[in-house]
Amino acid sequence: MDVKIKRVAPKHTFGIRYWLWLLIKRKIIISDQNQNAVLVKDFELPRRRLLLSVIAVLVIAFMSHASSASGGDAALIVSPVTAAPSAEIHNGKLVWADLITTDPNKAAKFYAAVFAWQPQYFPDENYIELTHDGRVMSSIVFYEDDRTVEGDARWLVSISVKDVDAASKVAAEKGGEIFVHATDLPERGRYSVIADAQGAVLMLLRATGGDPADDTPVLNEWGWAELWTDNIEEAASFYQAIAGYDALRFPDSKGGERLVLGTDGKARATIVPLPWDDVDPNWIPYVPVANAAAILQRIVDAGGAVLLQSDEPDGASAVAIVMDPTGGVFAIQQTEFDR
Question: Which residues partner with 135 through β-bridges?
């Protein structure tokens, strides 16, 4: 296994902590409104068990939607990743995320209440885009068939690559699977949909207008992503090959280590072991927030659930894994950014 991993002193604190391993398997932690009393209940974390459904969604959402809108009378033009062309390409950067759900309207209301993400409704009611402070950052896509059930939503992350065709080819050579081969989506860019060698699904994207500025992550917007996998070393080797990541090991607060993927001297993602045997490998997008306790309360008030949270929910590095009312799982982390 040709994996290049360095061990360095910690500079940043983010990503899910190894406190996951200290929590009771298959339990849900729900705090009261003051984040004090903790109620522990049994739960089953949603799994990426319907890969064929995901593939079908992507074909519908990013090919059919691009060519025809409701009734097939007009083309549906999706928004570019950046409002103004940037000419910047940042390999390995999380640049977009799509929520695939059976209830787009419920999801849109939730994210508006929690993060003030404003929904932009399209003539095709199966497609909604989310903006924050005028920046478009995500889409919500409807999908349902006889295999899906309520609460079976999924967030699909998109990472930037300079050459989608070449990266997809390498992914297949490294044991991955190509679900949607490299193709063009008007205004958005060239993309493919793949699964890594362990089965985690993601999109590779070369944005037509370039990537968002590569500066400090913005509060209440996507900041980075985390890969849950059953083979950290193989996963690191896979993503190094397709996106040119450097892999660094940082000591964590529990005496263990976490693996960070980076490019251009910036951390892009973390890789951690699967916390439970019955959860499939998958990517979890992160939102940096200024006040984790306040956001957690909004999540609960808006009908979401707090699945896991760190043992210092009010601390400067408070982390929580949460779920929207339609089943989409993501994470928040309190940060000290000034933006």
Answer: 132
Look up the pTM and report it: 0.80
**H helix intervals, the chain:** 51-59, 65-67, 104-115, 164-173, 232-243, 292-301
Give exposure, 259-280, as e/b (b: 16+ Cβ within 10 Å).
Answer: bbbbbeeebbbbbbebbeeebb
The per-residue pLDDT for range 84-97, each reduced to its tens digit, is 888 899 999 999 99
How many C-beta atoms surround the C-beta of residue 187 within 10 A?
14
Collect all residues with Cβ–Cβ distance below 8 Å to 34 and sequence separation of at least 6: none
Q: For position 253, what pLDDT does the model report? A: 64
Question: Would you state the pLDDT for residue 11?
Answer: 32
CATH of span 5-46+244-334: 3.10.180.10
Check pLDDT > 70 for residue 27. Answer: no
Angle of the 232-243 helix axis to the 164-173 helix axis, nearest 10: 150
Domain 5-46+244-334 matches domain 51-70+89-207 at the CATH topology level: yes
Q: What tokens does 256 get?
A: 């263990």
Q: What is the pLDDT of residues 3-15, one digit of tens each?
A: 443 333 333 333 3
Contact 322, 329 (CB under 8 A): yes
Asked if pLDDT for residue 265 goes beyond 70, the answer is yes
Confidence check: pLDDT of 325 > 70: yes
Q: What are the residue boundaries of the structural domains of the chain, listed by start?
A: 5-46+244-334, 51-70+89-207
189-195 and 246-251 as β-strands: parallel, antiparallel, unpaired? unpaired
Strand partners, 177: 195
Q: Picking from 152-156, 244-248, 324-328, which range would have the lowest pLDDT averaged per residue?
A: 152-156
**Contact of 110 with 304, CB cutoff 8 Å:** yes
CATH homologous superfamily for 51-70+89-207? Answer: 2,3-Dihydroxybiphenyl 1,2-Dioxygenase, domain 1 (3.10.180.10)
Q: Is 332 helix (H, G, I), strand (E, B) or coil?
A: strand
**For residue 220, how many other CB atoms are within 10 A of its CB?**
21
pLDDT at 227: 95
Residue 24 scores a pLDDT above 50? no
Q: For residues 167, 173, 176 and 178, what is the CA-based torsion angle, rounded to 10 degrees?
A: 60
